[in-house]
Every structure is written in C-alpha cells, then in structure tokens.
Amino acid sequence: MTQLLGLIGYPLSHSFSKKYFTAKFVQEKIQGWQYELFPIENIEQLPALLKKHPNLVGLNVTAPYKQKVLKYLDEIHPSITQIEAVNCIQIQNGKLKGFNTDVIGFQVSMHSFLTKSMNVVDIPNLKALILGTGGAAKAVAYSLEQLNIPFQQVSRNAGLRYADLDENMILNHKLIVNTTPVGTFPNIENAPHLPYESLTNQHFLYDLVYNPIETMFMKKGKAQGASVENGLAMLHLQAEAAWDIWQM
After folding, report:
1. CATH numbers and ranges of domains, the chain
2. Active site (catalytic) residues
C-alpha cells in the first residue's frame, strides 16, 4: 500500500508542499510514497480525514490549525510544551505525535540570512519585531529565544499594536519578521501596516510568506535599502526535517 503524506490547513491554494515532495520523490527515485493537500475547513474534520485515509503516516499542519491541532494528538515532542504549536505529525499505529519543524527551518535560514550581512548590522545587539501571534509566530519566538535575540510581538488586537510602531520603534528593532499571511497569493498587493519610510540599510526583513517569491513587504523594505528574505528556504528545511521524522 502506498504510504500517504499530506498537508492540512485552509486555504491551501498558495502551498508549494505537494509540488516539493512530489518532485523530491521523482528526483530521488523514492517509490511507494504520495503527498496530497487536504484543505479542511474546520479542524474537527481531522478524525474523519484520518479514517478516510488509513494509509496516512504523516501530516504537515499549516494555518490556521498549528495550535488547534494540539487537542487531537496522543503525544508531543518535549519542545512543544514551550512552542505551543505543531506543524508536523507522525502517525504510527493509530497514534499521532506532534513536532515543530518550523523551528529548525527558521533557525537555519535566519542564521544564513543574518550572516550574509554581518558587516552591515551588529548582530549581537540585534532586536526583533515579530508581526503576528499565531502558530508560526510561536515557532519564530521560540527560535529567537534560542538565538538570544530579544523581540516584541505585534498584533492587531493585543499587546504591542501596529499603531505603536513609530520611527523610534523601527530604528530600535533592526530585524522584522512577518509571520502573518498578509501579502500571500493571490493578495499580493497587501503588506503589513508599518512606517516603511523609517527602515534603513541596517534593517533585515524576513517574510515567512514564499508565494509570491518577493512580497510587497519585501519590496517596500528593499526600496529603503533593507536586506530581505522570503520563507522558501525555511519551507524546504522544515520539509526535510519532517521527512526525517516520518522515516523514524
């Protein structure tokens, strides 16, 4: 029987995951595996999905279910107690175990992004703003803690808000990470509400969005001389980490 993998979330029209794994299986001559997209409109549909596809051995999880899926898991990796979000599920003997490979993907790609411009910014004294407070934001927050980069989170509804991001706040936070879906295909003209005119060539803008390859957030940053990066490398890194988990 073919071993099935997939992605749950809603919507999934922007996702490159199926394309990535399908290409991987062909290029590496991996037989007996299949990857599909499962756009479920409510996380409560997960048990029915599992029942319908008894050959499912692994799932990726994307917005808006990285936190909501926790109640369906039988076991979690120890780090999940701190991260409080899951993007990878291993299914063995009917039991679901949750992991977070976003952390690996973000940490490795962020380190590469920063070190490319070590002559531009004082990395040991770097401070960050995380745009968003969802499941992806939790993985980024955990990662920045591991990298000893202090941060503040920005939300539309609580704590530090977008209206609080004045010139002084932007100048004191040289790393800005967008973990929201704003700017994702097909809404490519949208961007988080920031005072982009306050950005400088000492700023780093990292967008977890990877479709389109260059988001409006990135374009506005580049126009001010900032270094920018999308989430494609993170996607690939977390996908490979997930593949390793599913092989365990």
Report:
1. 3-100 (3.40.50.10860), 103-233 (3.40.50.720)
2. 66
